[in-house]
Write a structure and sequence with these properties.
The structure is a homodimer of 318-residue chains.
Chain A lengths: L3 H9 L15 E3 L5 E11 L10 H19 L2 E11 L4 H17 L3 E9 L3 E11 L14 E5 L4 H9 L7 H12 L5 H6 L6 E4 L4 H12 L2 E5 L16 H9 L6 E5 L4 H11 L3 E8 L4 E4 L18
Parallel strand pairs in A: 3-4, 8-11
Antiparallel strand pairs in A: 2-5, 3-5, 6-9, 6-10, 7-9, 8-10
Helix pairs in contact in A: 2-3, 4-5, 4-8
């Protein structure tokens, strides 16, 4: 069987142009540019909890990095470096080859360097720590939402959740529809460019990993404000649209995790600035509500009634 | 059951004095001091691979951080920040209370800040990424060893391995002896102060996590040199001493992992400087050999014969 060191060399050692020292010493060395703060985040994906054990490893390589890039996006940070810690039941060259390809494909797209890591034997577990730069004082925090802010989300919501519902046998999607939605589940596109464009525009931001209501809830709690959401404004795909009058459809859009879109708030005077960003990036960005006084998040249907989904979002220990 | 967010708040959220923004947003924000490089390393500990599932969690909290601090020590870096990703089969308040206590006890000793992390459900897995600072160009790398350098190690070697041999039933140590050695296994003392003191003295350094020969091997490969080691010079405890004429004892001292002592090389003219560091730190530091031309690592007994242990060190996939 390949040794731990050969494995790192073969699958995870690549040139690291913007780094003082990459993989292969006790630590990597890097230089943060003057006037920049370093943004740091870590996310761990566990087999059986975050993904089915038989998920193709190309998708896992992509997703392990994507969920971390999404955290950089939510801070308005430029992602630059990442470390990977990987626990594997056994060495499977084919699995590793594809995992590595999925990881580096996305890393190259965002020009980030894999600077270090750890490989060990154990139940399948993927842990990435990502580091990025943001000019001092310009990070998009959860705590900056102001009463009167518009609430925006990028992309569409709930596709990953409805793909999962199909895989779990709760619904049966036509094949073409499932394939469209499963892209959202397996290969989410982290909204890094959007995060960068929102510096100086957004008052607060978060990425939607636990579900819209749960993640908006974090903004509300951190900022000490409430929110009103127009259910009819929520952006959904044509696949999810027909399910919106069912509890499952409502749960997917309001509480479905794994979307990795950005939710952000911005003063109403920046409405046209946000719309311009949407055009520039070729990305759907939708105003879904308003920040209010208080601490409640209310979702209203067109007739003014309250939409209740019964569950606020994904929590690994609930 | 406690929620993921309450769990983070209760057990892992502490003031972070030297950090712009700590736990609780999509990423932490930190500032690296001018003229400093950031040293980054990550280590993952897996239940059943790195520790017995019933290991007291205070020890696990200590050790998960200690092995990472040891990487900072080996680079001559001042550790400053860490993230923790934790996968748990279930929430056990008592387990978490003690894990957190073990972690923060060591974090406080080294004045480092836990700035972020992730908790999730899954097989027990502890992954820490550590970040530290080192003045530009002053990091202790594996690649700097020069022919003629003395080879030094701190502390004693093999106690962790012999404690493990006892726990696995290969030998039977008297209780007092086992307790002494198990301290090395469960609560290794990362040699951070030594690493800092060796800036400007050592040409190369590594921490001994996989066993002396394997880790010296990394220095030799990176530096393109060989080594001669005097077996009789290797520092061992009074517990391990009686086993040195047995294969098991030799394996413990030469190939036993989990020591987390530093192995470093320094020019012979710095011999008294190293000895002064030892006195200042109250730490045993022993010269065990010399860097040679070539690429082989030879261990000689007093009679000049070669000592062979048959295995060079710990590798998770061999």
């Amino acid at each position: 069987m390949a040794s731990e060191f050969k494995l790192i060399e073969r699958f995870f050692t690549r040139p690291v142009p913007d780094t003082v020292l990459g993989v292969g010493d006790d630590a990597a060395l890097l230089r943060v540019n003057d006037g920049m703060e370093l943004a740091v985040s870590t996310d761990m994906l566990v087999s059986g909890t975050h993904f089915f054990p038989d998920t193709p490893s190309f998708f896992l390589g992509h997703k392990a990095l994507a969920v971390n890039l999404s955290d950089m996006a939510a801070m308005g940070a430029q992602p630059r470096w990442a470390t990977l810690a990987l626990s594997l039941p056994a060495v499977d060259d084919d699995w590793l080859e594809k995992f590595s390809a999925g990881l580096f494909h996305l890393a190259d797209e965002h020009q980030i360097n894999l600077i270090g890591g750890d490989t060990t034997r154990g139940p399948l577990n993927l842990c990435i720590t990502i580091m990025g730069e943001v000019p001092e004082g310009q990070a998009l925090r959860r705590s900056g939402a102001q009463v009167g802010d518009d609430i925006w989300v990028s992309g569409v919501l709930g596709d990953a959740a409805i793909a999962l519902a199909h895989m779990q046998g709760h619904i049966n999607l036509p094949r073409q529809n499932f394939e469209t939605c499963s892209l959202a589940l397996h290969q989410p596109a982290p909204r890094v460019a959007l995060g960068l464009a929102l510096r100086g525009i957004a008052n607060s931001a978060i990425d939607i990993s636990d579900g819209l209501l749960a993640d908006i809830g974090h903004i509300l709690k951190s900022s000490g404000v409430g929110a009103e959401i127009a259910f009819s404004a929520l952006p959904v795909s044509s696949v999810l649209q027909p399910f919106l009058d069912q509890p499952l459809g409502r749960r997917c859009v309001l509480a479905g995790g794994d979307d990795y879109e950005l939710c952000f708030t911005a003063p109403a005077i920046f409405r046209s600035a946000v719309e311009k960003v949407a055009v520039t990036l070729g990305l759907r960005i939708t105003c879904i509500g308003t920040i209010t006084q208080g601490n409640r998040c209310e979702v209203h249907a067109k007739d003014g009634s309250t939409v209740d989904v019964g569950v606020s979002g994904y929590d690994h220990f609930r």
